[in-house]
Amino acid sequence: MENHFEILRKARALTFKELEGLTLDQIHIIPEGFKNNIAWNVAHLVVTQQLLHYKLSGLDCLCPDDLIEAHKKGTFPTKTFTEEEFEEVKELFMGLPDTLEEDFNAGIFENYTEYPTSTGVLMTSMNMAIPFNNFHEGIHYGIIRSIKRFL
């Protein structure tokens, strides 16, 4: 499982690098043909990881409820982050993979509620949820890179 945590950290580092040099205005632009913006995608990755791993394990998520409500699956950008708010999102984005690994190694993920994903994968355990989340991270990394081409 250790490799999966390393992949998550690497995916997050690559995504984080895509944010370099972008202004607050740029990360909120929704280019024609897209449903969301870079800011939403980054917050969505934080939220989805927390829901797939913590909530479906019956544990409290480690990010604010309002962030979850605004960025969970099926939502669209409705909020413009301030610099300070987006810095907090980025801190969660980069820090939560380490917390996940620590919590996994501590054995806190004892239960898991089955969840059918929109891609047709039925997740039944953390051993499935962790690699699936990495797949999800890759999808949104690609979306973020595509959005950047239109900025």
How would you describe what is shown here?
The termini are far apart. This protein is mostly helical and 151 residues long. It has helices spanning 2-18, 24-27, 38-53, 65-71, 83-105, 126-148, and strands at residues 115-116, 122-123. The longest helix is centred in the middle third of the chain and has 23 residues, at 83-105. It has six helices and two strands; from the N terminus they run H-H-H-H-H-E-E-H. It has a two-stranded antiparallel ribbon. The mean pLDDT is 97. The relative contact order is 0.21. The protein is globular.
Summarize the structure.
By secondary structure, the chain is mostly helical.
Descriptors for this entry?
single chain; 151 residues; two-stranded antiparallel sheet
Main sheet makeup: 2 strands, antiparallel
- Could you state the order of secondary-structure elements as H and E? HHHHHEEH
Roughly how many Å apart are the termini? 37 Å
| Rg | 15 Å
Unreliable stretches: none
- The backbone outline, from C-alpha atoms, is globular
What structural class do the secondary elements suggest? Answer: mainly alpha
Helix proportion of residues, in percent?
A: 55-70%
